[in-house]
Amino acid sequence: MGVDKLIPCSVKLSQVIQKSGCDVLCVIDRQIPKELVEQFNDFRSYDKAFDTVVSCFKSSKLNMPVVYSPLPELTDYHDVRCYQNAAAKSLERAIKGGFKAPLLLVPESDKFAYASLCTVLGALSELYVPIQYREDVPDKSQRISNLSVMISSPKAEEILKEALLLESGRFVARDIGVGDPERMAPPRIEEYVTKIFKNLKVNVISNLDTITKEYPLFAAVNRAANQIERHRGRIIFLEYKPPQPAKKTLMLVGKGVTYDTGGADIKAGGIMAGMCRDKCGAAAVAGFLQIVNEKKPADIHVIAALCLVRNSVGEDCYVSDEIITSRAGVRVRVGNTDAEGRMCMADALCRMKELAVSENLPDPHLFTIATLTGHAALAAGSGYSIVIDNSVAHCTGHARKLQEIGQLFGDPFEVSMLRQDDFDFNAGKVIGEDVVQCNNVGSSRTPRGHQVPAAFLIQATGLNKHGLDSPKPLKYTHLDIAASAGELPALPTAAPIIALTKAHLN
């Protein structure tokens, strides 16, 4: 779907404040128009908090309202998210003030090379309206009528175009991520995705016999939900083929657990609330494909899988102690049904491995993206994705490069390493089992609780046979976005789309 249809209002460049047709001016830095200098200095003379809080006032010289959302005093440890946050807060205040046509002054920065782009992205993020609200209350589908931006850079048009492209991907990811367990149940996501990606190759796997035979670990998670037609699981493969011979292949698998009850190991004590966000990995993959579809890279082949399933509890749900043979022929003993994310992705990841090998795809790089563990949130802290490379990807320096790029564009990562301990943790404990899916306590109470699932995904898919010394080494990266995807009541962030785009599509 075109970018213009995925942006919630018209967005344009403006050259002159007085002729912009706007009803409020949003300023987020101390690079202010000369008409405001005297008034700003006057405010500072009696209000020591002026440069620390968002304010709204009337400028007599400009004859228009002004929203001022100041940046903090920057230290060596701040990053470009300061600009994103300030821009979002300025739009939030303008909307609360009832304004419909803000003009955002976009500053440049000597400290952050991409501050202008990130500022525009921050403003656009504040304009998103959840899909169900748009559908149920159409007259509330826009927060403002139009946004004007004034960018002093000679690359202003390029910056705005790029921001709108990236935002279109984030819009798709937010739509899927924000939908409640019914609005974005697997069949409804299928409807949404097939409408968005009409010109991509889309293969929807919904036949239960096919799922049971070819994706047995996914089928186990799907068993209880499959009893309810509107909750039945889907695996959706999306493919973009470039116009020129591909030089590299990106293969992404997203966790799309549309609701996670915990299954038989049910989430108790009120911690089930918010589990409609457990599909944000698949949402991010779909958003990334939206950018690919618009950007149309000339020589990059992209294959994606959205693993959409509801982890329901019921008389037919899978339970701990079951032994299930994965697509790769690995005998998996279930340890905890609340570790369903690795189960629902493993067989699709195995399929990606098979394609990379059998079709001899050029320079394949496999990914899993998932809101997988509470341990990731504990280890990294809110707002940070975790990147874990296998040995082959590690030797290319991929994780550090992704971290560096994420830092530049306000999509930050922490880097974790896989160790032999993580593989040993999953090793089968008795005759007849190859690996154990999980221990029986939460990941946040398990040492190395976010690395162990990455090791499991390598073991359960046979990727451990494609290491550095194998005839066909395969790069594989696991991204745990549990801490960065956005928890209720906040809206989904669409992390890590920006960093992935900048790292792999440029």
From TrEMBL:
GO terms for MF: manganese ion binding; metalloaminopeptidase activity
Domain Cytosol aminopeptidase: 336-343
UniProt cross-references to InterPro entries, sorted A to Z: Leucine_aapep/pepB, Peptidase_M17_C
SUPFAM superfamilies (UniProt xref): Zn-dependent exopeptidases
GO biological-process terms attached to the record: proteolysis
Protein keywords: Aminopeptidase, Hydrolase, Protease
PROSITE patterns reported for this sequence: CYTOSOL_AP
A GO cellular component annotation in the UniProt record: cytoplasm
Pfam families: Peptidase_M17
Family: Belongs to the peptidase M17 family.
Cross-referenced PANTHER family: DIPEPTIDASE B, ISOFORM A (PTHR11963:SF48), LEUCINE AMINOPEPTIDASE-RELATED (PTHR11963)
Protein name as annotated: Cytosol aminopeptidase domain-containing protein
Species whose genome carries this gene: Glossina austeni (Savannah tsetse fly)
